[in-house]
Amino acid sequence: MNEHKIGIGIDLGGTAIKYGLVDSEGKAYWNSKKPSNAKSSSKEVLKNILNACEECIEKAKELGLEVESIGIGTPGLIKNRDIVLGETKNIKNWKGTAIASFISTQLKLSTYVGNDADMMGLGEFKFTEGSNKDVVVFITLGTGIGGAIFIDGKLFQGQFGLCGELGAFPLVVNDAIFAWEDKASTSALINMYKAAKSINELDVSIDGKHIISKYMEGESEAIEALGKSTDYVAMGIAGFVNVFNPKKVVIGGGISEAGEFYFDIINQKVQKYVMKECFENVKIVKAELGNKAGFIGAGVFGLESKVC
């Protein structure tokens, strides 16, 4: 039997659990997904995570691989790489859930939990060659905005492990205070478009792809909404560039699939708000791993946490 040690990576979302077998370099040996049933109960979600881990263990045996650890990415702030702090929008009664304690007790494997955006960022970071000493800001635009910061090639989580909530950064608009994600997320873009078109807010048929399509057709409401959205996105990115002076800013989430034109707009608008010296040589690029980044990053996180 090949004793190559790997980790289980779990990416928990409001709709699905993506999971797989990953080594410390971010190579995925196998992966799958299943519904998370996030709106049912915390017990049901834990059971689904456990089932995904058990499936990974069986697959590892088939492949002749030895599971060393489990890493789990979940929405929310995480205490001690285990407990969810505060409520989460996508998962019912998730506050206070000791995820790592439950899974490690059931499976007798070292288990570590991190914020889902941190895990996605770690997956992307591992995928990028020659980045071991880089400063990188990772941003994912979706229902809200997630983020991860890497300094000298390491995930930066702050003094108490709660760093990276980029979407919560305060933004003042017309003398009112908002979180950055209230104005710059894909959800915010959709709301702007609905308002411009006088569409009922409860209409779920409108998504980011629809707006991009209408933008490409030259529809005035789509052009207006995307124009406002990219202004807010650029403001936030400019602020983080001024603070961290990264080598690059990586943007993930569905809107990042819009095309090169979207990144051209963001680059142009960031220059309006950023300190020129801080932006020199900084690249704003699209995330490459798509929906695999979360479980890959979680698997790497579990392996690196066990070593520590």
UniProtKB/TrEMBL annotation:
Keywords: Kinase, Transferase. InterPro entries: ATPase_NBD (IPR043129), ROK (IPR000600). SUPFAM superfamilies: Actin-like ATPase domain. Signal peptide: none annotated. Pfam families: ROK. The keyword Kinase applies. It comes from the Bacteria. GO terms for molecular function: kinase activity. Belongs to the ROK (NagC/XylR) family. PANTHER family: BIFUNCTIONAL UDP-N-ACETYLGLUCOSAMINE 2-EPIMERASE_N-ACETYLMANNOSAMINE KINASE, ROK (REPRESSOR, ORF, KINASE) FAMILY. This is Glucokinase.
